[in-house]
Amino acid sequence: MNWFEGALSVKAVMMSDRRPVIKLVVDQKKKDKDTAFILRQAAQRQIPVERWPREKIDQQALGRTHGGILALAGDRNYQSVQECLDAPQPFIAVLEGIEDPFNLGYAFRTLYAAGCTGVLMGSRDWQTAQPTIVKSSAGASEQLAWCLCEDLGAAVRQCRQAGCVLYCAQRSDAIDYFDADFNQPIVLAIGGELRGLSRDVLEQSDQNIVIPYARPVRSALNGTSAVAAISFEVVRQRR
Hints:
By secondary structure, the protein is α/β, with parallel strands linked by helices. It has helices at 7-16, 33-44, 54-60, 81-85, 101-113, 130-136, 140-143, 152-161, 199-202, 223-238; strands spanning 2-5, 21-27, 49-52, 69-73, 91-96, 118-122, 146-149, 165-169, 174-176, 186-191, 207-210. It is 37% helix and 22% strand.
């Protein structure tokens, strides 16, 4: 179990139904509209609420940005590849090499805003990092379908067999991402700046894409920056 801090995180955890919520803790002096909304949602879901003094909440919380609201919740439920595909026009992201939970949260926030229908990642235990991911994503990580894959290559293959086109952010044999056709079911694979994408994913690429630079820069953008640039080109093309 983990403690989730702040109204955005608590609302996302409580309303997404991705994990069991054990209880809420609310500052005994809070009476604003947002708190009232959270309390109503908790009552509808029969989630216990405890009122604590601010000092006790400060002791329990890891930071000081909790705003007087905490949620104690269990492990997240992850989704299947098929659940990520169950959309009229899938936009699935494959993320590799983004290890920092803050950066992963930022990537989730961007992908959710851009209409991504699911995220595929290699198998890893993210449970202890969940509060950081949820907070840095502004709750978006709880809204997105998230699949942790024992065999990421097989998961990508399943998506391609379902009719998705795989675009890999990879410089070799690439076209500018502006020239890619994102107005169709797609899988967008983006790796971290250090390790990039795995061979199992790259070997299945239907088309590599690259972000053109305005200057002769040799270093790669970090993964979250690449996610932002390419994801909103998907948005532009699908409008």
